[in-house]
Amino acid sequence: MSNTVEYFANSQDAAIALFLQDDNGDKLTDILVDALDEAFRILNEELVTRPLN
Length: 53
Prior knowledge:
mainly alpha; 2 helices; elongated
């Protein structure tokens, strides 16, 4: 299992390196901002649907 996690971490690093190598920093920033927006949307939905105790 740890080999799988390590492989994905290395492939993500490689993908980021390719973006930066091709001078696509702005595109990478857009992707990261979209991912953060999606994460916050999911968290917000989770908080709204959770009953108050």
